[in-house]
């Protein structure tokens, strides 16, 4: 089964990755490694999360866009080098979890400091979903089952958050960001449920 990009059109995701491929090959030629770019992406996301928590949406948007590009670029560099390593895959997956935790913790902090219960609880729900969605996929794959269904894989969750930040920066109010975090919580929960159901059906058929 081909991995779905959820609410992000597959054509747009493929175009973005294709556009980064020449840049990735150039970085590989000068000795930049995928693991170094993974580390840079985490640092940028942590910086972006701090900017969210301190209510600087425009700066957060700019930093997180670059961090998201780094998150995609590390895989492209790995492919340019002839394929990723097991260490690289481990670091990339771990970095994603750290980045997700930072972003939703920042959103929850913002909700707490602004006495915004919707934002706080949406951020907590989104954080839980952001950990369980990839866990279910990884566990399913360890059993030989594909579980890539659902409207909100990680790429889609990041795009939704970036749109929310753009709305916050443009409108001068965090309402758009709150709506984006709530959307991630809802779509992430739907994705989790769909993956659990898909795995349960596959295991049931394999009996």
Could you give a short description of this structure?
The chain has 207 residues and is mainly alpha-helical. It is built from seven helices and no strands.
Number of domain modules: 1
Shape: globular
| Strand element count | 0
**Global mean pLDDT:** 91
CATH superfamily: CDP-alcohol phosphotransferase transmembrane (TM) domain
Rg, alpha carbons: 17 Å
Order of helices and strands: HHHHHHH
Q: How much helix is in the residues? A: over 70%
**CATH structural class:** Mainly Alpha
Which residues sit in consecutive blocks of at least 5 with pLDDT less than 50? Answer: none
CATH architecture label? Up-down Bundle
Write the layout of secondary structure elements.
Blueprint: H1 10-29, H2 34-53, H3 57-80, H4 86-113, H5 117-142, H6 154-171, H7 175-205
Q: In words, what does this structure look like?
A:
With 207 residues, the chain is mainly α. The chain has a single domain (10-205), classed as Four Helix Bundle (Hemerythrin (Met), subunit A) (Up-down Bundle). Helix content is 81%, strand content 0%. The protein has helices at 10-29, 34-53, 57-80, 86-113, 117-142, 154-171, 175-205. Helix 4 (86-113) packs antiparallel against helix 5 (117-142). The radius of gyration is 17 Å and the shape is globular. It starts with 9 loop residues before the first helix and ends with a helix.
